[in-house]
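Q: My labmate handed me this sequence with no annotations at all. I'd like to see what the chain might look like in three dimensions before we decide whether it's worth expressing. Could you predict it?
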Amino acid sequence: MKAAIIREFGDASRFELSDMPKPTPGPQQVLVRVMAASINPVDYKIRKAGAWAGIPMPAILGYDAAGVVEAVGSQATRWKPGDEVFYSARIFGRQGTYAQYHVEDEEILARKPASLSFEEAAAVPLAAITAYDSVITFFQTKPGDTVLVHAGAGGVGHFGVQLAKAAGARVLATGRASNAELIKGLGADEVIDYRKTRFEDEVQRLTEGRGVDAAFDTVGGDTVSRSIQAVRPYGKLATVVNLEGSLQGMQAKNLTLYFGFMERTEAKIQAMKTLVERGQLRPLIDSTFPLEQIADAHRKIEGGGMKGKIVIRI
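A: Here is what I predict for the chain of 314 residues:
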């Protein structure tokens, strides 16, 4: 099978297109013919220095996939050849989805929503579940809450906006002025141009000094330390990226901070399927690249400024 591989860690030039052995599913696994994958920041972090992920060399990266079941293991009962599926792969110690075929545990697959193309479906799993863990599971967002989502047009942020809105919240999102209408189209009630104003000051104005119930950071840097000023007493913060700066002020306000690390479960991928089918969740695709141009796709995501996700056609 064709696969994009790296033989050592480093920059995007390390990628090469190679013929690799077609994998064989274990007893409770399925073999998927991958139609599309997507790129997440964790992909280029592993590519640069990913020994911690335990991926065998030569390594195939990639956490997301949408495709067609090709074969099933001897004890696999949930799927049959021809089923269209999507999922986020368990690649710690295994190979990823930048390939024509991929083997995965049967319980973390979901049937691809009929309303999504393979490219759209591949853009959903990791980023949407990451947002779900914070906005739904940790924040326990409910009708009447006010939630601040940073980078509302970003790969994870655009799902955070939609999930908070689906849960009944008033959604404030940060983003560029040029993306304001796009972010509002996803469900944001207010978009704060972080390049023009201090978002924490604007949040106080928009909430009449009360602050938001929760703030979701997908940016990093000093975003969490600044967000402390934007969250009400006894409120919550969550981050899925590295943070800088002081957390002073959290204790005085009795705030709680969640460091998100996405865990793949059957319930979560099924929840994404349900939300898509209800029209409450849709992926925003920034651009699509063929597998042969995987290095260019990695360079683009490292450059930042995307609207949604980058997808790879297999």
